[in-house]
Write a structure and sequence with these properties.
The protein is mostly beta strands. The chain is about 10% helix and about 55% strand.
Length: about 550
């Protein structure tokens, strides 16, 4: 069966290639493979899979010729790598589409990815690192009837899983329409004005049959919203407001409240100085094509998290924050200032200071009581940006980057993070608010044009009491680069103050890599602790592991 699937993909690819050569079309794509060979490590809770060897592989092929386009993705999980979602298994064709595009229309039949506005009502996307893919399967039409005007229509089912080499679709149907107009492009008298305005709006609905014997569930659930973007000189502001009609589901415990999402961003910048401020207020905005699902299954929309995306190991991996779908009010502010070159503090190259603040609170809700819920299904009332005293998340961080010469630079960083584990539930070893203070020193040094080093020293200290979790951590990273081709790295994450002395463990991992043009090989060996891996407020659980990881990527 696997051989037949592979053969069919090869035939299709060969057909594309032959057609491309005859008609001067363009064939592009990429390949990625990750292989793991794992060991049992009872000290960190790493188990040995019966297969020992685990592998994820996928290959994209895209073909374009004049207005015609076609593409597909072949996937293989034999079986999936450690921690990857269980909805991925087997080998087969995971994505395929054909379409046509010209100056007026762009039509796609098959699989497609799409986003309306910020994604608060519709976002079909793939994140390979997270193991997330909710591609639509149906039809999408994009029309550009006038310069600056774009109208989109989408209709289809969502990809729910890839089981035994076959794509399984979600139960409900998703359909939507979106329109956007850039006034300065559309109307000639605004073309050269400093004030730049874009307006947009969306309508999305889902259909799922009412199969509940006890409740009367709406089979068609509509959602709608509008948005704007305004720019004037160095200042910008954008905002979006969306409403979702009552949608009883497992997420909200089958209440009949409407949901809403309000988002805004504003900022100003000039050379050497910039600031931004963002806010959001969401309530009951879990929106799935199957009301019975949980976690990241069958989500129609996307609600971005308002906190800085961190890259340092202890900051990014120990206490990440995921957006609360059923409600949160959040803010983020950031200031970036570069002390001018030639000044006493700026030195020869200038000094950059970045200060960032973000938080999230549970919305303030007035509950109506059991009797009201029984008669109307509405459990509570709440107002836009009405904040309770329940803190969900807070992050205060400051970084200072200083370049002393062409070959030597230092970055000093401090992070103060608070996470309410009663809501986020990222660990079983703490209750209430976990407070973590993290310091990071990063040093970069270039010996010559072929050799360079990078060193990171990190420490995390948690609060005492119920929120102490696993205690204090330290991480050291050293990386050596040769030319632009070779790199070698070693990282040790050490839980030196775990309340249980036998769990004061070193998580050491070494990596060697080679890069040549669009080809990349990496080899890693060592321990990985259990925890959460998050990108943009979307997370997945990663179990502990000990072993070898090989990866290969190639673009063509």
């Amino acid at each position: 069966m696997i051989f037949k699937k592979l053969l069919s993909v090869c035939v299709v690819s060969s057909s594309f290639l032959g057609f491309s050569q005859e008609n001067k079309g363009t064939l592009t794509g990429n390949i990625e493979t990750t292989f793991q060979y794992l060991n049992e490590d009872t000290l960190i809770g790493a188990s040995l899979p019966p297969e020992k060897g685990l592998i994820n592989t996928y290959m994209n092929v895209f073909y374009v010729n004049n207005g015609f386009k076609a593409g597909g993705r072949f996937e293989s999980y034999a079986p999936r790598i450690n921690g990857y979602p269980a909805v991925f298994s087997g080998t087969g064709l995971g994505m395929r589409y054909v379409g046509y595009t010209n100056a007026l229309v762009d039509v796609t039949v098959g699989n497609f990815y799409e986003q309306f506005g910020s994604g608060a009502l519709l976002r079909a996307y793939e994140n390979r690192a997270l193991g997330y893919d909710n591609a639509m399967d149906g039809m999408r039409l994009i029309v550009k009837p006038k310069v600056g005007v774009v109208i989109k229509a989408a209709y289809g089912y969502q990809r729910e899983s890839f089981t035994n080499g076959r794509v399984e679709l979600a139960d409900g149907i998703v359909r939507g329409i979106d329109g956007e107009i850039h006034l300065n492009e559309t109307f000639k008298f605004l073309k050269d004005k400093k004030l730049d305005i874009t307006l947009g709006g969306s309508f999305v609905s889902k259909y799922q049959k009412d199969n509940d014997d006890d409740l009367i569930l709406p089979e068609n659930v509509g959602s709608y919203g509008g948005r704007f973007k305004i720019r004037y000189n160095k200042f910008f502001i954008d905002g979006e407001y969306s409403i979702k009609e009552n949608d009883p589901s497992a997420d909200n415990k089958f209440i009949y409240n409407n949901g809403y999402a309000a988002l805004f961003n504003m900022g100003w910048s000039k050379k050497g100085l910039g600031f931004s401020f963002s806010g959001k207020s969401i309530d009951n905005m879990s929106y799935r094509s199957d009301r019975s699902k949980g976690l990241q299954m069958d989500l129609i929309n996307y609600l971005p998290s308002l906190n800085k995306t961190h890259t340092y190991n202890l900051v990014a991996s120990l206490y990440p924050y995921a957006t609360q779908l059923n409600g949160e009010i959040a803010y983020q502010a950031e200031v970036v200032y570069t002390i001018p070159k030639g000044s006493k503090l700026g030195g020869k190259y200038g000094t950059t200071i970045n200060a960032n603040f973000s938080n999230a609170y549970d919305p303030l809700k007035s509950y109506k009581g059991i009797n009201a819920l029984d008669s109307t299904g509405i459990a509570y009332t709440t107002d836009l940006f009405s904040t309770s005293k329940t803190l969900l998340w807070q992050d205060i961080n400051v970084s200072i980057y200083k370049k002393f010469s062409k070959s030597f630079n230092i970055s000093l960083n401090y992070f103060d993070i608070k996470l309410n584990n009663d809501f986020a539930s990222i660990t079983e070893d703490a209750t209430g608010v976990i407070t973590a203070h993290i310091g990071v020193v990063e040093i970069g040094y270039k010996l010559n044009k072929n050799h360079s080093f990078r060193i990171e020293l990190q420490e995390l200290v948690t609060n005492k009491g119920a929120g102490r979790d696993k205690g204090d951590w330290a991480t050291g990273v050293i990386e050596y680069n040769y030319k632009s081709n070779w790199f070698i790295g070693l990282m040790d994450q050490y839980n030196y103050a775990n309340p249980h002395e036998n769990l004061r463990i070193h998580y050491v991992i070494g990596t060697v890599g080679y890069v040549h043009e669009s080809t990349r090989f990496t080899v890693s060996y060592g321990r990985q602790r259990a925890g959460l891996f998050c990108v943009g407020g979307v997370c997945r659980v990663v179990p502990a592991s000990n072993g070898l990881t090989l990866s290969f990527t190639q673009s063509f």
